[in-house]
């Protein structure tokens, strides 16, 4: 099921005489090397499901418990494999339930193809049963979309869908297929798509930009790198490491760049952004060259742009021309695929080590350790902290696990403290911050990398947004490890209420059900821990389990995540308490 | 603060259903009001040309170009300031026939490029082509006669600088 590179068949054309549109859809998926899809059936997509039944030995369909779950599972699969994830749903409510996952994939550049059924062509526009204009609804959040109303369009459009989803800056594509097109018979012929004339997947590399960037990097006394998911999507981890090691540049990551560089790498200086580390945030405003690699200067990364890296020369390595100068004005933009641009710049970079400058990061880290990290990881108070749970998981996983986090305080704590040895190991909803992402995404991640341990770390609030996917885990016997960090609060919102709304806890307290009983109801082994002395052994039992395992950890109710850049403040104003 | 200026966007696209939605959503998302819009075929077979007129800043215009070009079916997008284009709008005025021989209307028709394109016992229709100000001016002058109907087209524009779409398409294929 899992290979590192996409196993796509060579560009031979395959032909079949007089098959239905529905069968053609399956054939297209097989041609694209897809052997696993997530979905939920219904009237308008039934012909395709009928073919799925016939082709089940070649193409596994996982029935999620909600279409949103299907998209997040497809995303989890895509994020850990680099392959295109596929989700399928019926028209109307099935299609609208996909929208959150599509929007998430769009903002986090995840390759995904969604297939929806649609009412028959002659009914379009008549407000037919379960008709929604899903093309219209999803248009602003898809990389591309198309409505097929005639079976003969299927091969070309499906080929184009996969090409667009995976090429360049990846993203979600939605293909809506009317029911008549699924029934119609036609002579099938498949040709892989290798270009679309109005679409340039990867911009040309400009050698002048490479030279100009090299000059800035070579002349910098205090260079700093901020890298994002572009390094992972571009499979450029080795080129990236070679560059930073040769130039000796401290490198900080965005939440989606996490795991592209091993946690223990000596040049890894931590996370930037709202809950990032103290040093990289402070020093963003002291570096003389800021080198951004495959990241997009999200506002959660930059804080107030008027006070962001104004002193620095900015170099931006980027595949998407629309990102250049969007938020931060660059001095040099190096357009192209980072795998190529980083390889091209490497020979032009002088060997260097910026040890005094690196020491400044370490000094800030010492301060952060004293003020924040020590109490997070080695608390002396009674209540369990989220940080010590992550530390325990690190010890059990040795940094080899895929960690899937949901959205909230537990997400920030997970990303701050989880240890990673390997790329494509951090799966989280960054740009959209979609609560409910983690449980279904963990299913997809485990199916994409069945030989690796997959641990989902989820807040009590987020968990209840997609908790029904426990049914998928039970039915499909996917051995994911589920940790709920229960603070009985929508903790991240409560933290803001505490800090900025005078502790008016409007609708953030949660009266929760018995999570252990719920998991057991789905026949999933389950435990609850509320005392420090029981934590290590419970985590160990979870990690040792061959099957799915649910662990609820009751953590302190009103813990806060620091450091923190208050919204609207500068990265320099990052607070430790 | 940067100045707000009038920009005329020329967007060359594939001729597919739904592309207008995709493009207008980009303006909507940024809360930019489209002052006028025209869609037509272009100088190249099977390639459509959208013209949007928007009042925004230069940096907003630059970012908008990036977002427009990012759409899969957009071949190329350009933005031009007023001095970089030659442009026109067309308007139709429907007026009651009792005013047909009013001297003022007659003199207005001699002025500029305006023609009577239809005459019936009840009404006549004047067509006028020109710059927005000229049409506005004409509108103000004709309004006292009681406009039965008035309509103005979106701007059509041709750029002074070259827009090398054919070359681009050759390079793509
Ligand atoms: C679907 C969705 N709705 C609302 C929010 C706003 N939000 C962000 S974090 C958060 C609280 C999350 O609570 P929980 O899952 O318990 O995590 P905690 O912060 O307590 O660790 C909320 C409501 C969101 N991100 N996503
Ligand atoms: Mg919570």
TrEMBL record, chain A:
Pfam families: TPP_enzyme_C (PF02775), TPP_enzyme_M (PF00205), TPP_enzyme_N (PF02776)
Superkingdom field: Bacteria
Keywords of the record: Amino-acid biosynthesis, Branched-chain amino acid biosynthesis, Magnesium, Metal-binding, Thiamine pyrophosphate, Transferase
InterPro entries with a match to the protein in the record: Acetolactate_synth_lsu, AHAS_TPP, DHS-like_NAD/FAD-binding_dom, THDP-binding, Thiamin_PyroP_enz_cen_dom, Thiamin_PyroP_enz_TPP-bd_dom, TPP-bd_CS, TPP_enz
Cofactor comment text: Binds 1 thiamine pyrophosphate per subunit.
Known catalytic reactions: 2 pyruvate + H(+) = (2S)-2-acetolactate + CO2
Annotated PROSITE patterns: TPP_ENZYMES
Domain Thiamine pyrophosphate enzyme TPP-binding: 406-553
CDD domains: TPP_AHAS, TPP_PYR_POX_like
Sequence ranges assigned to domain Thiamine pyrophosphate enzyme N-terminal TPP-binding in this UniProt record: 20-135
Signal peptide: none
Top enzyme category: transferase
Cofactor(s) recorded in Swiss-Prot or TrEMBL: thiamine diphosphate; Mg(2+)
Domain Thiamine pyrophosphate enzyme central: from-to ranges: 210-344
Pathway annotation from the record: Amino-acid biosynthesis; L-isoleucine biosynthesis; L-isoleucine from 2-oxobutanoate: step 1/4; Amino-acid biosynthesis; L-valine biosynthesis; L-valine from pyruvate: step 1/4
Molecular function per GO: acetolactate synthase activity
NCBIfam families to which the protein is assigned, alphabetical: acolac_lg
Protein family according to the UniProt entry: Belongs to the TPP enzyme family.
Protein name: Acetolactate synthase
UniProtKB/TrEMBL annotation, chain B:
Gene Ontology terms, MF aspect: acetolactate synthase activity; acetolactate synthase regulator activity
Alphabetic keyword roster: Amino-acid biosynthesis, Branched-chain amino acid biosynthesis, Transferase
Origin: domain of life: Bacteria
Keyword Signal carried by entry: no
PROSITE patterns: ACT
Pathway linked to the protein: Amino-acid biosynthesis; L-isoleucine biosynthesis; L-isoleucine from 2-oxobutanoate: step 1/4; Amino-acid biosynthesis; L-valine biosynthesis; L-valine from pyruvate: step 1/4
EC id: 2.2.1.6
Residue intervals of the ACT domain: 8-88
Leader sequence residues: none
InterPro entries per record: Acetalactate_synth_ssu, Acetolactate_synth/TF_NikR_C, Acetolactate_synth_ssu_C, ACT-like_dom_sf, ACT_dom, AHAS_ACT, AHAS_small-like_ACT
Pfam families registered for this protein in UniProt: ACT_AHAS_ss (PF22629), ALS_ss_C (PF10369)
Cellular component, GO annotation: cytosol
Gene3D superfamilies, per database record: 3.30.70.260, ACT-like. Chain A, domain 2 (3.30.70.1150)
Catalyzed reactions per annotation: 2 pyruvate + H(+) = (2S)-2-acetolactate + CO2
CDD domains, per the entry: ACT_AHAS (cd04878)
GO biological process per UniProt: isoleucine biosynthetic process; L-valine biosynthetic process
Similarity-based family: Belongs to the acetolactate synthase small subunit family.
Function: Catalyzes the conversion of 2 pyruvate molecules into acetolactate in the first common step of the biosynthetic pathway of the branched-amino acids such as leucine, isoleucine, and valine.
Subunit: Dimer of large and small chains.
The name this protein goes by in its record: Acetolactate synthase small subunit
